[in-house]
Design goal:
By secondary structure, this protein is an alpha/beta fold. It folds into 2 domains: 111 residues, Aspartate Aminotransferase, domain 1 (Alpha-Beta Complex); 237 residues, 3-Layer(aba) Sandwich (Aspartate Aminotransferase, domain 2), CATH 3.40.640. 40% of the residues lie in helices and 15% in strands. It contains 15 helices and 12 strands. The strands form 3 sheets. It has a 7-stranded mixed sheet, sandwiched between helices. A 3-stranded antiparallel sheet has the order 9-12-11, with helices on one face. The chain starts with a helix and ends with a helix.
C-alpha cells in the first residue's frame, strides 16, 4: 500500500510510521555519541548502561525487576526480537497459538522453524478474545502463545482480567508466552497498559518485546529490546548473536540519556490521544462508523455505509481515485475474513490528518 501511495502520489495513512520528526534532542544525542567515538561494535547484548536504564523503567512502571546483565537484550527493532524469540524455542512439529488478526511476521517465522501456527480469530468487529477457545486449543504440542497489546491492527487492549485468565490457562503448563508490547506507551482514555511483566505467573515464562522506534518516532533507527527470565534469555542471545551480533552503537548511547527523563515516554498517551481525537472529530460527519482506538496509532473505520465492495478493492480504489492510502484489515484475518474495515495510521501531522479527513468526508 505504501508503494501504491507513492505511485499515485496519495496521502499515506497505511504503513505504521510517523511523518513528523523525532525529538531534536535525541538526534543531537546520537551526533554527540558519534563525535565521542562510539562508532564500533557494542557488546552483543547491548551496552550495559542502556540495559540498566531499561531495567529501571520496567521496574518503575510494572514493579518487575529484570537483571540487566542476563535478562535484557538490545535488538535490531522489535521484529528481530520476535524472530529470535520464536527461533530460539520453536522446533519442527511445535504448535504456536496466534491470535488473528496478527502482525504479519509471526507466522512466517514460526513456519521457517518448522512450527505450526494455530490460529484463533478474535471475535466480532471489536475483536474480543474468547478465552474458552484458547483453553480448548492448548494441547501437549503447544510450545508458545503470542499476544500483542495494545493490538495492531485493531487498536484494542488486553485488560487485567484478560491477563489473569491467561495466567490461569498457562499455570500448569510449560508453554512460553511471547508478548509483543511495542505500543505500550500509546494507550488512551486513562486505561493502563497490562504488561505481562506485572503478573508473576506470566513473567516467569514470558518474553516481552519492545520498540524504541515506535515509542520515539524513529522507526527507521530499528532499535528495540526484549526482556525475559535468564533461562529463556540465554537461548535468545544465541540466536541474536548469529543474526545481527550487535545493534547500532551511537543510537544506544543516545537512548541512555533520553530515557533518564520519563516524560519522554509517559507523555505519549496524551500526545497520540489528541491526534486520535482530532482525526475522529474531523470525520464525525462522514459515512464511516468506528469504535475509538484504545491504543497504538491505528484507527479502524467501517465503510459498509459507503460501499459493499470488499476491503481490498475499496482500499485500492481509495488510493487510485481519491489519493488516500490505508490497509485492508482482511489481510490480517483468518481466511481473509472481511468486516468492511480499513486501518488508518494517525501518527501524522495535523495538516496531513485534515487533508485525509477531507477526502473521507466526501465519500
Amino acid at each position: 500500500m505504501s508503494k501504491m501511495a507513492n505511485d499515485y502520489n496519495a496521502i499515506n495513512l497505511s504503513q505504521g510510521f510517523p511523518n513528523f520528526e523525532t525529538d531534536q534532542k535525541l538526534k543531537d544525542l546520537v551526533t554527540k555519541a558519534m563525535n565521542e567515538g562510539y562508532n564500533q561494535y557494542p557488546p552483543d547484548s547491548g551496552i550495559k548502561v542502556l540495559r540498566e536504564e531499561i531495567s529501571k523503567k520496567i521496574k518503575s512502571l510494572y514493579g518487575k525487576e529484570y537483571n540487566p546483565d542476563s535478562e535484557i537484550t538490545i535488538t535490531s527493532g522489535a521484529t528481530e526480537a520476535l524472530y529470535c524469540a520464536i527461533t530460539a524455542f520453536v522446533n519442527k512439529g511445535d504448535e504456536v497459538i496466534v491470535l488473528k488478526p496478527a502482525y504479519d511476521t509471526y507466522e512466517p517465522t514460526i513456519k521457517i522453524n518448522g512450527g505450526k501456527p494455530v490460529q484463533i480469530q478474535l471475535k466480532g468487529e471489536n475483536y474480543k478474545l474468547d478465552w474458552d477457545e484458547v483453553r480448548s486449543t492448548v494441547n501437549s504440542k503447544t510450545r508458545m502463545i503470542i499476544i500483542n497489546t495494545p493490538h495492531n491492527p485493531t487498536g484494542t487492549i488486553l485488560s487485567q482480567e484478560d491477563m489473569l485468565e491467561l495466567q490461569k490457562i498457562l499455570s500448569e503448563t510449560n508453554i512460553i508466552l511471547l508478548s509483543d508490547e511495542v505500543y505500550e506507551h500509546l494507550i488512551f482514555d486513562k486505561e493502563q497498559h497490562q504488561s505481562v511483566s506485572k503478573f508473576p505467573g506470566l513473567s516467569e515464562r514470558s518474553i516481552v518485546c519492545a520498540s524504541f522506534g515506535k515509542t520515539f518516532h524513529n522507526t527507521g533507527w530499528k532499535t528495540g529490546y526484549c526482556v525475559a527470565p535468564e533461562k529463556l534469555m540465554k537461548e535468545i542471545r544465541k540466536i541474536h548473536e548469529l543474526t545481527v551480533f550487535s545493534v547500532n552503537h551511537p543510537m544506544q548511547r543516545a537512548y541512555v540519556d533520553y530515557l533518564k527523563d520519563p516524560s519522554t515516554y509517559l507523555d505519549l498517551s496524551n500526545f497520540y490521544q489528541t491526534k486520535r481525537d482530532l482525526f475522529l472529530n474531523l470525520i464525525k460527519d462522514s459515512k464511516f462508523s468506528y469504535t475509538p482506538s484504545k491504543g497504538t496509532y491505528y484507527q479502524l473505520l467501517n465503510f459498509s455505509g459507503i460501499t459493499d465492495e470488499n476491503d481490498v478493492n475499496f482500499a485500492e480504489r481509495l488510493v487510485k481515485q481519491h489519493g488516500l492510502a490505508s490497509i485492508p484489515v482482511s489481510k490480517f484475518n483468518i481466511n481473509e475474513k472481511d468486516n468492511s474495515q480499513l486501518r488508518f495510521c494517525f501518527a501524522k501531522t495535523d495538516d496531513t490528518l485534515e487533508k485525509a479527513a477531507e477526502i473521507l468526508c466526501k465519500l
